């Protein structure tokens, strides 16, 4: 269908299912076990209600914000996702261009299908910021060499993913029999998928170490000058651990509450629950770290609710890939534009002028209060 007929994230998902190869669709859409967390990530937002206020002059609303010292046009970033070239030949470089044109941040995956150099070359300008997501390899020297390249390429933060020391059991991915070899691979370096029918997800995780501990943040600090963001936190205890003085001194500036889009532990909580438990048991975290969330963001209302609960910005994973599918750069731009407009509309309807104003008074979380 023509791009202008795509009106929301679900439209893009349906189109992607039609235009992608079965292997690509299985890899992108799949999640662990019974897909309970994948679904719950989104339905949790729908249990929260908005509390719109009247008599506010909302001709002008300002969606701009600052994340990790970077000004962005609205509080959305593209989450790291592997293998964007399965969607479109422009791959992650196309996503970089779309993010530049729409004024948001891209987090580039360690398992991107292009090299970081090629992706950064897709940016609209050399000053366009981007984050780099790292999976630490069993052979640490490989990750150290990659971090050296990242440091000089203009990346503005390193995101360390921690929710997937091992991939979840993604059956849709495993069922696609031709999911074996692939020419695109880890940081565009040509790692070959292994195991016929074993699934692309599993193949991509080969070489990733399952042994990381809090001590390894020191190792990371030794090998990068950039701010560190920890991704994949799923409890208030770990959020509090990340906000310890020791971690702040090592340059941890943010955390992404994420369950990998339901692709890691199935029945892990949606990020909304984690935001709520941090508010209850470790509220100091919001003063010490920037808290971001990803997983299940399908509507501007979802994003606004996360912000009301204390998130600085929200990530989109699959929606960016689905925008890229069939439509390339323009599709990703439209995905971002739709989200920006939905966020703006929600702010107007709430009677809010700026994202900094959004708070608990704009939502009703009663359905989740027994958590
Ligand atoms: C991911 N995700 C991911 N995360 C990460 O840290 N490194 C990676 O390489 C990948 N790769 C990846 C591939 C695909 C196809 C998907 C769908 C996801 C997880 C991603 O960053 C994010 O947490 C989720 O995608 C967010 O959920 P939604 O927006 O897809 O619901």
Which keywords apply here?
single chain; 371 residues; alpha/beta; eight-stranded parallel beta barrel; two-stranded antiparallel ribbon; 12 strands; binds ligand FNR; transit peptide; metal-binding; flavoprotein; EC 1.1.2.3
Summarize the topology.
Layout (H helix, E strand, L loop, with lengths): L8 H11 L2 H8 L6 H11 L2 E2 L14 E3 L2 E3 L3 E3 L12 H12 L2 E4 L7 H6 L8 E5 L5 H13 L4 E5 L9 H5 L24 H6 L10 H8 L4 E6 L2 H7 L2 H5 L2 E6 L13 H11 L3 H4 L1 E5 L5 H9 L4 E4 L1 H7 L3 H23 L12 E2 L7
Helix pairs in contact: 1-15, 4-16, 10-12, 14-16, 15-16
The site of ligand FNR has 26 residues, from helix 2, strand 11 and helix 15.
Detailed description of the structure:
With 371 residues, the chain is α/β, with parallel strands linked by helices. Helix content is 39%, strand content 13%. It has 16 helices and twelve strands. Strand 2 (65-67) and strand 3 form a beta hairpin. Helix 1 (9-19) packs across helix 15 (318-324) and helix 4 runs parallel beside helix 16. The longest helix is centred in the C-terminal third of the chain and has 23 residues, at 328-350. The site of ligand FNR has 26 residues, from helix 2, strand 11 and helix 15. It is found in: Mitochondrion intermembrane space.
Largest sheet: 8 strands, parallel, barrel
Assess the beta-strand content as a share of residues: 5-15%
* Secondary-structure element pattern, one letter each: HHHEEEEHEHEHEHHHEHHEHHEHEHHE
Which runs of at least 5 residues are low in confidence (pLDDT < 50)? Answer: 190-197
EC number: 1.1.2.3
GO molecular function, one term: L-lactate dehydrogenase (cytochrome) activity
Keywords: Flavoprotein, FMN, Heme, Iron, Metal-binding, Mitochondrion, Oxidoreductase, Transit peptide, Transport
Catalytic activity: (S)-lactate + 2 Fe(III)-[cytochrome c] = 2 Fe(II)-[cytochrome c] + pyruvate + 2 H(+)
